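User: Thanks for the earlier help. One more: Acetyl-CoA C-acetyltransferase. Can you show the sequence and predicted structure together?

Assistant: Of course, both are below.
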Amino acid sequence: MPEAYIVDAVRTAVGKRGGGFAESHPADMAAHVIKTVVGRNHFDTAEIDDVILGCLDNIGAQAGDIARTAALAAGLPENVPGVTIDRQCGSSQQAVHFAAQAVMSGTSDLIVAGGVQKMSQFPILSAFGAGEPFGSTNPWTGSKGWHARYGDEEISQFRGAEMIAAQWKLSREDNEKFAYDSHQRALRAIAEGRFEREISEFEGVSVDEGPRADTTLEKMAGLKTLTADGVLTAGVASQISDGAAALLVASEAAVSRYGFTPRARVHHISVRGADPVMMLAAPIPATQHALKRAGMTIDDIDAVEINEAFAPVVLSWLAEIGADPAKVNINGGAIALGHPIGATGARLMTSLLHELERTGGRYGLQTMCEGGGQANVTIIERL
């Protein structure tokens, strides 16, 4: 089977809600990373087969196929198409998967894959109530098939996170310790300049805005829980953020034609579904499936990026997969760095590649929970 190579990967810093990107158009955010990843690799941009971007809540400035808008805003030739996809929080990881699949199939040679999200302007779930004819902001309301299968079960990421905490017996203190460590790891990474190679400055912002140097366990302990009888607070959840990221994915023919030096090979891609009510536990079976299909064990993996939607997602995954915590989210995760939902998958992939290069690791694994109880898994091999 033909190989798919990652030639380059870049991201903006992650802006906090109301922060450095609050006045930026999301198409311009995406255009910036597209222009950067294309501009520092020399080839005929008319040969790009597609621009695939993840983005959800596609309303307002994020509507109208923002991948196409961003490609044109980036100055790519008009013959280059663009498509926007929505696999919820995994949208831009899926964009990379679709790019790799197109290259592996032999139908494409060069694809820009990534994602963008402007949560300062469009908070999560903004699209849920748009044009809703059933009198509810819950998109499942009125579906006879859904109701026949799941009844009136509450579908909520907050409920899912609490369900995970309860099933794996994760205390409030367990989750807050994990969240505190995420901030400390991110602050260390920033202080040591670990993100500098992967971030392209945009709108004067070149450093992730989310990590809080003043966070303490005592402050976390004083936060209100998300639900009256729960153990989770906003302090153990991902931050509302703005950002964009892009990767250049190429075939062996394109690598040879343009003299690229690939930075990684896509070793495995897969996606699995699980319980949509618990929703956020899908990375566990998805990782087990991916490792089996790849003929690997978790010990073969040198670095892991698993999205910190909520602390219990990662803690339950660690408990079931048995990964070394020292290899997981080495430079912090979304609790500290933020989670621009449509862009996070590509952001994680970009950070994973750079971390493998920093440490000399060979294999990296990325996974993340997604709406509907799904999870993508990507394994890359550093070259």
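User: Great, one quick takeaway?

Assistant: The mean pLDDT is 96.
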